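Dear support,

I submitted the protein below through the web form. The confirmation email said the job was done, but the results page showed an empty box. After a refresh the structure appeared. I'm attaching both so you can tell me whether what I see now is the final result or a partial one.
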Amino acid sequence: MEKININEILECFEKNTEINIGLFPNTKSVKYGYENIKNEFKLYLQGLGEVIDIIKDCIKKNNVIHFNIWSNDGKFINGDGKIRIIENEDDKLDGLNKIIKQHEKNNIEYNVIINDLNELYIFEVNVENTYLTKN
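What the results page shows now:
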């Protein structure tokens, strides 16, 4: 496993719409969006049910979540970062828009019904470590 540069990360994240969170065997797939500003890489996650429980458990234990994703060219990227629940409505909407944008650029429809933004869980991950395994 080798530490990788941000361009390899972005290439992989650009082409996908779901990421696995948690540690094996307790992993769940979740929709994501991301941003990279001045090499500060952030993920935005939106989940339901068990996903929310896994994330809340990570927050309660140590605020760190583990994730992994496969690239189309056989690279396996895994990493971790500090995770938090986004509480502010403007920030929550911004995170949701990043998730929707990720799906739209991959020609995948992403529907979310927002009756009350307060009932929607959006999480922010400040990515700290990423590693690459090549097949």
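Response: this is the final, complete result; the empty box was a page-load delay. The first strand starts at residue 2 and ends at 3.
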